[in-house]
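Table S2 (continued). Query chain:
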Amino acid sequence: MSALSSLRSFPAQSAVTAAELLAFTRSVAADAELVASLPLDPEGRTWIRLDGPGGSEAWLIGWPPGTGTGWHDHAESRGAFTTARGRLTERSLAVRLPSEGWQSLELAPDVDRTRRLEAGTGRAFGEHHVHEVLNESPSQHAISVHAYHPPLPLIRRFSRTGPVLRLEHVERPADWQ
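Corresponding output:
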């Protein structure tokens, strides 16, 4: 895991910025040996947990063709991800959702954003960022590196029908670790 040992050291409780998380994900994505060590499954996503900077949560994730996350956010964590292999598509909402007290919202017509992230390309985002990440390739796996600070307290999962976004459920760390 050469990329991990060559990264700048952060104090354990430092306030890691989204830009620092992006620098970390880019460094890890460039580590060909680490990326190649991820076992890939043709049926579902695979992942390895990594130690991120300043106590952040980080993941190396494999995406089979045609898979995605569904709409979700990362609560009060900021984050970043970089595509290491293949291409990912991110669909996001340019709107801040209320953190609680709702089950269904009608979105304005101009809030949708789409980004295509080729290998070596990444992006950072702030708190309450709502998005879905997809591997739209019909035949090739994609691999990406994700980092979040503070470590994810929860993930809210949403469904979407046209302009209507519905809160479906909330996941806690015990659900994915």
